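Session log. Operator J.P. requested a structure for one protein chain; no other inputs attached. Running the standard single-chain path with token output.
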Amino acid sequence: MSSKTIGLLLIIFGIVLLIATALYAAFGASVSGTIVDNSSGKPLKAKIEIGSKIINTGDNGRFTYRGLPGEITLKIAAADHGTLEWKESLKFVTNKDLGEIGLTDDVVLRGNIIENAVSPISIKNVKLTVGKKSFKVDGDKFEVAGIELGEQTVIIEAEGHEPFERTGNIKKGSNSMTVALSLTPEEAMRRWFEAEQAGDFKKAYKYAHPDMASIFNRAAYIKDREDSIEKGIVLDSLKAGDAKIISEWTLFLNNKTYKEAAEIDTLMMFKGKAKQASAGESADPNKVEGSSHLVKVEGRWKIFPQPYGE
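Structure written below.
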């Protein structure tokens, strides 16, 4: 490419850039406003995020954003105040002043609740306690206001989940936290049973303790269940009592002792097991009573499943 050609291309590029800049100035849109304290009306130094762009206001709380037309979201935050999301629609050749945007200086705690489980689900009917105040929360996110400052204990409780407790310093303005709730041993056992009944043996095996891999691995587990179904043997029902934590328990299959195991009295009812009791015995081969044990691994209670095959 000759130097003349390169020079011509640079001139064309410069002209296009000037035209684009002129069009942006002529047809672009802007939005402005002033961030203030909601109670006193005094301006606040704030940080405003709009997409990847960050605007820091001065002491007067004033900001201006210029961009292309479309929907935007302003995420506004200031020291010792809560945060605010403000959605706005920018139109061609529009300079919109939002006026004063107030941020509260109330004490706010917001957070996310997730489930530490094989297949996490949204947790409902959560009881959140902060200090002496309790709140009902539904869903994965929460936001509560009017709580006390200083060191407070946060307790989160939900059915089928182990309670969460943490003590920390609550400051003025916005406070945030993320909480992972673990299943109780009983709930872990129940969900394993649900997966078994649904025939989702891959999912069911995810509830198995990792040590089972060398004793009764996933492939053997799935084959055992599928072979049992072909023979007409299925787990029909499971009744489980309340779990009790025992200081230690030894698995006879590997002679390994586990600390802090959960022990649950269980009654499993099968369909299709052939009667193998001797004449005169009344034992029901479809009824299996005993104790199931679970051990926690990375916050999750894991079971030690046994073969169904005869």
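Operator note: The two ends are 82 Å apart (CA to CA).
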